[in-house]
Design goal:
By secondary structure, the protein is an alpha+beta fold. Helix content is about 30%, strand content about 30%. Helix 6 runs antiparallel to helix 7 and helix 11 crosses helix 12.
Amino acid sequence: MAVEWDRVGQPGFDRIVEALVHRVYDATARVEVVNRRGGDDGIDIKVTHGSRVRIFQLKYYLDGFPTTAHKGRRKSIRQSFARAVQHRPWEWILVVPCTLTTAEREFVTSLAAGQAVRVGVWDRAKLDGLLATHADLEASFTRDQLFEAAKVYGQERALLMDGVRDVSARVTALGQQADGLDDHWTVDFARQGKTVVHTLRAKHPRAHEVSPVEITLTGNGPLTPDLAQAVRRSLGFGLPEEVVLPRGAVESLTVSGPEWLSGEHRDVEVRWQPADKVPLAETAVEVAFFDGEHVTACYPGTLAHVGRGSVGRSVRVDLAGGSLELMIPAASGAAASLRFTFSLEKLEPAAGLRLLRIYQRIAAGGAFEVRASAGVIGGGELPPRPEAARQEAARLRGYIEDLEAVQRHCEQYFPIPDELTPTDRIALRMARLLIQGHCVASPFLTRARITLNGQDSPTLRNLLSGEPHAVRGSITAFALTLAGRHLELGPVHFYHPHVTVDEKDGRRALAALEAGRGKGCDVTVRPLGGECFRHLLRDAAPGSGWTPVPLELPGFTEPR
């Protein structure tokens, strides 16, 4: 049903055109409707897109502005154009609810002669075309909503003879009626059992400015700590996260806005979600940490969100595997807070180490800033985290540093394993120290089995007789298995300055040597005092000889 322009009157005509201009330009420009009570100064509607300005002049001339009648109308149009040109618009558009004659159109276009401005016309055909494109606007101005809704409701009670297809058609028809309730807002709906879920949705980006909707929640008792914090982050600082208030937490919900939407509701679950993300002018940022004036660390990130709420504003920076959320109170002198969340899942050690270093900077406390090329976006002074949290981070970092060193040495790269046995953890630390050229005592090698080659000597007889002696040998390859991967470091030497032979093996080996059958005889040797054999990579250049360095693993006893 088309708009009957001769019946809507001047106020109705203005409302329709204003709604159309908002719908056409809101997504890309700023639309301002001028209140004409103090004089419009040549502007009825102003559309600003960067440096370009469009000015709309509305004239409710149902029968145009011919030269034979209504002679004052052309003068009025000319005067409006002259006032508008003083604002240096890029384009000036005359809006009328009639179809112009050729002479009338030529009159309008002639206004641009000698002026650096484009001139256009939105006449009846243009307006009808735009309303056809935005059918919900046309519906909101032409349909008797109560009558149409009643018709659809009556059909819902009819038999659904065409099954699911009929259900889809009826729901679509009801949705179209909901779209026609308002030219700025609509309601999406869904049925879940006996519950109907309503979702308020803006029809254009500036609906909240043109037609504000205010929601007042009355709580039913205190919220749980986690839910209270979520509400504070979302409503207080504008962070983009979904918050759900269950029925038991809400005593009432009051909506103030358009008449069809306003009212008080009880026994409801309230759920709000972040709005569609608005593209940010700049997204490359860095997170810098300070010690006084000195920058101690700086990490690149992506600016994902900038928001504002009732308490202050928020900034979110995305990092590889993590997210940093900064909440800055509006109150002067109030401390900013920072929440850093990250996951090491599916990350290689190098990426995981970067996240852990950021966490350790935050845990240590001190000044920080989030800044872009245009300047500082936010920052603050962080209090130090508890010592237990810092120690846990240090332990985790040590594990990943060990893993990164071994992967680099073996040239086998894979994500950080989710789990690690105590045995694997010790082997991983030993491997890193061996790679770095250190000698390590191995808790996995507390004895060795030696096979004699048949050669006899006083030194060998002394050892077999129970006298402590130094022993050195080689292992073809030192390897460990992690995440189903076999990681070989290379051949290693093992050594201990004081080992003894098991007494029974010593007597048997001495008898074999006396009989000339010593070749192939096996004996077990053990370091004195319950100590362990020491390892050293064959190609390493040790800085401390065969003196073992400590493993320094919290919770593990140092091998000797």
